[in-house]
Design a protein that fits this description.
alpha/beta, Transcription Regulator spoIIAA, 3-stranded parallel sheet, two-stranded antiparallel ribbon, 2 helices, 9 strands
């Protein structure tokens, strides 16, 4: 925020309803928020979580599904569809509100199936000190979603 005394609003909370309406609410309230002095909105993760249309976005499933693919039991995310998300951003920016998207890149726990891998146990008090040899573990790393060809405009 470059304005002196700018106001950022966190436009979500953990218990936001999973009705797919948050992006629409952002678009519909953008002008009123700007009039009230809000200069920035912090929005929740827009991508598909492991809980599909009910996931708050911190249990990442597909970073590239913003509510357009039928995965995890829904097309939309908890907050709406990709088109609604983009409309909300445009509406907010159109009245001078900056958008900050919450993107969590290190929560890589969501997958469809476990795979076997090898891992080394480490001392919980010193993550630089291995305390054993490689051992087989099961990790949630296998995805079964269908690959989609994406055409981009240059």
């Amino acid at each position: 925020m470059s304005e002196t005394n700018g106001v950022m609003m966190q436009y979500f909370h953990w218990y936001s309803p999973d009705d797919g309406q948050l992006w629409n609410q952002v678009a519909e309230s953008a002008a009123e928020l700007a009039q009230l002095g809000v200069t920035s909105l912090w929005l929740p993760p827009a991508y598909k979580g492991t809980g599909g249309g009910s996931d708050v976005g911190y249990g990442i499933y597909d970073l590239f599904d913003l509510g357009e693919f039928d995965q995890k039991g829904s097309i939309r995310t908890k907050y709406g569809t990709k088109d609604e998300y983009l409309r909300a951003i445009r509406a907010a920016q159109g009245v001078g509100i900056r958008i900050y998207a919450d993107i969590v890149l290190n929560h890589k726990l969501g997958a469809d199936e476990e795979e076997e891998a090898e891992a080394t146990p480490f001392d919980p008090e010193n993550r630089n000190a291995p305390i054993g040899e490689y051992q087989k573990i099961k990790a949630w790393t296998h995805f079964t979603f269908q690959a989609v060809e994406i055409n981009t405009l240059v």
